[in-house]
């Protein structure tokens, strides 16, 4: 690993981001495979149990003090947004081609901008609003409403993106009043607790292979988020945010190799517009505010 230590901080961040993009795509692949036979609530229940076990040392370090929140209502709202993000986003992954669901989910960046104006009082200029508008034009090209190619699961992916954006905005608000241990505890336990009843109701006895895949989802999710955190710890946020779209390439490759699915022209065109608009927005913000950090609200368990 000596070669890694000799890299610049930005290159270290890029290495971790590439790993995170690959592992997140593997997580989506595992969820898609499991979703062919198991209900999404069962998958989420086992995922949250596995992730809670892995972050238990951090949770127990200050338990039950880590449950004391200055803004419990916002913590519960964050859990609700996380539920929307995962239930809608993962359902879309199951029923849409991997690349399609991944590309539509990139709309999260534009929802973050809109929610930041509403809830954080941020000022957004004409260039950024133009980028948001162009981004949603790209999303509409991918969704193709009013045509025979339109799918309700595309809307679910978009709803999942909105939920994930809500989580990021709420994390920024909560970080002003609550400790990282409290944020981590609510994030790890909240979704799991809510999933207990529906997970049991829809429970189907998994096969040995499905048990391995279920545990794999939890483990892979944890390490994907860890890689993401290490990436932004080492590298400049503006550089990494513009490279995160490599996830689409991994999703396309895995979807083609495993399911023989390849995105159509509308997905590539829409995704190109979304990515270009997002990168332009990043460029404008880094010129306007050199210390701007689009990862400021990232946390161990974003959703």
Supply the helix-strand structural class. mainly alpha
Characterize the biggest β-sheet. Answer: none
Low-confidence stretches: 290-301
Determine the N-to-C terminus distance. Answer: 31 Å
Describe the fold and architecture:
- With 303 residues, this protein is an all-alpha fold.
- The chain has one domain.
- It has helices spanning 2-5, 9-34, 40-60, 72-95, 98-105, 108-119, 126-143, 152-174, 180-201, 208-234, 237-243, 247-259, 265-288.
- Helix 3 packs across helix 10 (208-234), helix 5 packs across helix 8 (152-174) and helix 5 packs parallel to helix 13 (265-288).
- The chain is globular, with a radius of gyration of 19 Å.
- The relative contact order is 0.21.
- Mean pLDDT is 86; it is low at 290-301.
SSE blueprint and pairings:
Elements: H1 2-5, H2 9-34, H3 40-60, H4 72-95, H5 98-105, H6 108-119, H7 126-143, H8 152-174, H9 180-201, H10 208-234, H11 237-243, H12 247-259, H13 265-288
